[in-house]
């Protein structure tokens, strides 16, 4: 089949689909990934075709307050909608199957309706309503089974509002009759088509009250095109005891110098060497006990560190479990508090340290507990054993293959 995967957002929102796409390609499918130009090298390095999608996730710094966050999300949806149809149908050919991430699905449904191309949702977060936990973007406080489901349904309505304007414009461009976004979503739910989730049940068990069409496959690991870490990093790792890794992914942080100094102070208070990943926060330090790096495969580095300080994005959270090392999650926004809370609940992290309340003393205390109190490392290793038995991309490929036998 010709398969097009449409994914939008930060690096962590796109990278897992390079691994999924590479597995589908290995199964004989012709795979293209549509994403922002920022991620073109990532996609092409996996041996996949690339199509541009106007979905630059950078919004010029931190977003403060729900109103500003909603405005930024609606602006992102508008940019995404402007090129969604061309990304799917352009570049000299269509597709036999469309896979939509959580950020592209609300607009992708309209394109699939207009073109008649079969589609599946393929999400990285458990975003269908459930009584087991509240929506992943609404905080971590449970409201009981009825309350969690009610807030989950409300969260979907908020998403409908965010995409409503972009969806109206897209339907007009596609020549489709007007339709409310909530009605389109309900039609998708009524089809009974599979929805795939690329996370591990070791981290979040599949909710028992989900419809059978919701399948948790296991994590889709980003494609890796190298088996070596940079020489300077290898030298640093060999020069002393395992360091702690500190990185906040694509998250902006404001005052880079202040944050870098805070992190180095915390590492030294905890008696640890450190590897700082620059990322969106711009972390940087120059010292014998601290090394600053760019992007490297987490799969190669994390098993060799004492602990991982991270923003608790879905991909980085999964990578810490795969490596079997304890975490110190420092959630910033969106679904990150949810993943951080899961790590703490599973005893793979001593505590979450919210970014807005981050201090050198608090980070040093959490790091010290993570590396010296054995239960955290033991729990992380047990979870790694479970994750190692999963083949998320393989399971997703099986479901895709089964679609070829359906009318």
TrEMBL record:
The keyword 4Fe-4S does not apply. Residues 3-122 form the Glycosyltransferase family 28 N-terminal domain. One of its GO terms (biological process) is carbohydrate metabolic process. CDD domains: GT1_Gtf-like. Pfam families: EryCIII-like_C, Glyco_transf_28. The keyword Transferase applies. InterPro entries: EryCIII-like_C (IPR010610), Glycosyltransferase_28 (IPR050426), GlycoTrans_28_N (IPR004276), UDP_glucos_trans (IPR002213). One of its GO terms (molecular function) is hexosyltransferase activity. Keywords: Transferase. It comes from the Bacteria. Residues 284-391 form the Erythromycin biosynthesis protein CIII-like C-terminal domain. This is Glycosyltransferase family 1 protein. It comes from Streptomyces mobaraensis (Streptoverticillium mobaraense).
């Amino acid at each position: 089949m010709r398969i097009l995967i449409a994914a939008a957002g930060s690096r962590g929102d796109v990278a897992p689909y390079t691994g999924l796409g590479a597995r589908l390609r290995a199964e004989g499918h012709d795979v293209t990934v549509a994403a922002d130009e920022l991620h073109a090298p990532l996609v092409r390095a996996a041996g996949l075709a690339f199509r541009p999608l106007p979905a630059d996730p950078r919004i010029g710094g931190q977003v403060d307050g729900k109103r500003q966050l909603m405005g930024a999300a609606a602006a992102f949806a508008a940019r995404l909608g402007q090129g969604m149809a061309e990304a799917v149908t352009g570049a000299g050919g269509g597709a036999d199957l469309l896979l939509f991430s959580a950020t592209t699905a609300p607009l992708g449904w309209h394109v699939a309706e207009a073109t008649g191309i079969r589609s599946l949702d393929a999400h990285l977060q458990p975003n269908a309503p459930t009584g087991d936990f509240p929506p992943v973007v609404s905080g971590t406080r449970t409201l009981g089974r009825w309350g969690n489901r009610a807030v989950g349904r409300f969260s979907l309505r908020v998403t409908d509002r965010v995409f409503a304007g972009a969806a109206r414009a897209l339907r007009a461009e596609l020549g489709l009759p007007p339709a409310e976004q909530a009605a389109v979503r309900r039609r998708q739910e009524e089809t009974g088509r599979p929805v795939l989730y690329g996370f591990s049940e070791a981290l979040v068990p599949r909710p028992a009250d989900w419809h059978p069409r919701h399948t948790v496959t296991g994590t889709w690991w980003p494609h890796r095109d190298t088996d070596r870490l940079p020489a300077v990093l290898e030298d640093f790792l060999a020069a002393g005891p395992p360091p702690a890794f500190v990185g906040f992914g694509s998250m902006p942080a404001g005052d880079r110098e202040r944050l870098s100094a805070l992190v180095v102070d915390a590492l030294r208070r905890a008696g640890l060497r450190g590897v700082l990943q620059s990322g969106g926060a711009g972390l940087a330090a120059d010292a014998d006990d601290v090394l600053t790096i760019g992007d490297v495969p987490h799969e190669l580095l994390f098993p060799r560190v004492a602990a991982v300080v991270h923003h608790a994005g879905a991909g980085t959270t999964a990578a810490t479990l795969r490596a079997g090392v304890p975490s110190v999650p420092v959630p910033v926004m969106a679904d990150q508090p949810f993943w951080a809370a899961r790590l703490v609940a599973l005893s793979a992290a001593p505590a979450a340290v919210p970014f807005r309340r981050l201090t050198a003393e608090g980070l040093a205390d959490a790091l010290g507990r993570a590396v010296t109190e054995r239960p955290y490392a033991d729990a992380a290793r047990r979870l790694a054993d479970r994750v190692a038995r999963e083949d998320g991309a393989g399971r997703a490929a099986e479901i895709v293959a089964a679609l070829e036998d359906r009318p």
